[in-house]
Amino acid sequence: MVVGSLQAEVDPSVAGAFPAPGNLSFENYVAIDERIDLFTGLMNSGIFTGGALIGTVVFGVLAGYALAILKWRGRGFVFAMALLVQVVPFQLLMIPLYVMIARDFGLADSYLGMILPFLINSTAVIIFRQFFLQLPKDLFDSARIDGASEVRVLWSIALPLVRPAIATAVILTFIGPWNEFLWPFLVTKEAELQPLAVSLANFISNIAASTANPYGAMMAGAVVLSIPAIVLFLVFQRSFVSTDLGSGVKG
Fold it and tell me: Which sequence ranges are marked TM in the entry (predicted)?
């Protein structure tokens, strides 16, 4: 993909994987940036995905903690509903969600309208719930005996131990909104609000043929869209380690 984005003239043969220096150019990046504004698309993608990530982590941690640690009537039923949501494709919900957000809430052509359906992620809730279940109960009981409130227990005891789960939830949640183009396209037709995935989809459908090298321009856009996901994985990959969850318990 990177090689294809740098080729001045398309060479789909095996030899094209090792192009001659004279066939390397950044013209494809210039061509696509002139038509869809890569920086604006990246900024919109960052706002859209960042809002979804914040909601996922905050609500996922709270719901996962409540399902794993707190005892209350209906806890098993709520967890079963979270599992059931996993089998419902998001595409099946897009039309009723659009009617609710655009017509009932009046949030069409806004960042909030794009972010709202992604604020809570059932996958993240399940991840946090399963991780909280592994934590030694003695840690929580000791904190409560010392007078810590439930919020303090969550903030000071549980959260520092679930950093691998947070990293996992961030990675899994990031990929969905970052690559999503159908939902933002429904919510807003304003080019200055559309994430990069939407702009690339429009470019491939309507504009690519007008460029001197359509294949190279599409590859250039795909490279720009992929870089943040790769960087995020490299930043968080050190957190995918097993932690000694029982080290805080004597014996």
Answer: 47-70, 77-99, 111-132, 153-175, 215-236
238: left (phi over 0), alpha (psi -120 to 50) or beta: alpha
Domain that includes residue 69, residue range: 50-194
Nearest Cα residue to 114 out of 206, 38, 189: 189
Q: Is residue 220 part of a domain?
A: yes
Give the span between the Cα atoms of 220 and 210, in whole angstroms. 15
184 with 106, same domain?
yes
Q: Is 240 exposed, middle or buried (0-12, 13-18, 19+ CB in 10 A)?
A: exposed
pLDDT in tens, 99-118: 999 888 888 888 999 999 88
pLDDT band at 17 (very low <50, low <70, confident <90, very high): confident
Question: Which pair of structure tokens corresponds to residue 34?
Answer: 């002139």
Same domain, 14 and 100: no
The pLDDT, as a whole number, for residue 77 is 92
Q: What band does 241 get if pLDDT is binned at 50, 70 and 90?
A: low
The count of domains in the chain is: 2
Q: Which tokens go with 175?
A: 């990929």
Question: Where a domain ends, among 194, 228, 246?
Answer: 194
Residue 248 within any structural domain of the chain: no
Asked if residues 193 and 41 have their Cβ atoms less than 8 Å apart, the reply is no
Does 126 map to a domain?
yes
